[in-house]
Known about the structure:
The chain has 6 helices and 17 strands. It is an alpha+beta fold. It has a single domain, classed as Metallo-beta-lactamase, Chain A (4-Layer Sandwich). It is globular. The two termini are 19 Å apart. The model has no long low-confidence stretch (mean pLDDT 92).
Amino acid sequence: MRAKRMKIIALSEGVFTIDKTKNFIPFNKEKDDLQQRAIGSLLVEVQPFCIVTNKDIIVIDTGLGFSTENGSLQIHQNLANNGINPLDVTKVLLSHLHKDHSGGISIKDNQLNQQFFSFPNATYYVNKDELAFALDKANTSYHPEDFMILNNADKVILTEGNGIIDGYISYEVTGAHCPFHQVFWIEENGEKIFFGGDVAPQLQQIKSRFIAKYDFDGKKCMELRQQWWQTGQQQKWTFLFYHDIKTPVFNFE
């Protein structure tokens, strides 16, 4: 009998334009005109992922932290729409802490004036140096109020360098997009899922020689994308693209 495949759920928070101000402005593909936005605006999807394995319910990156009209955290609603209770999430993997990837890490209770973990029963995994860098570099890309809760918390594991989690999740520090960015592979029953975060955010980028000015080291990003694309093609990886409007999930099968 064929082994059960991992379940992949793209938790789209919508399409946005973003320019040098780093503000995410909602974009309606049917009605809005990209030419009316600021020159140089990028058109991106923002979509965390949920991976259901035999061992875990994993969330990879946490989106912008926006709320729905009824006040629910959008990533919670997206999970619920797919039959998953946020309380059942067991692991949260963080590639880096830019605001569009870390906004849903925590929820603020305005009455108590306290931050609480959005996934209270999960273990959070973040690179130690990325957390320190992000806390020190508050700017338009990093909003420490969203992820300050990660500092000195029991449910947080600070990763260093490259390693393996529970024997089946690999992580590797790439830098390239930001100094301490990391990527993940999840491997179970011969299936391999790859999440390249913002080093490999879109299918078209990974298929072409493309250097972006907004990356910390654009040349390294391009080289890593080429390497992953070639290896993934040979080994039949499933790719997850956080900012791809058309193809959030791609595999060679």
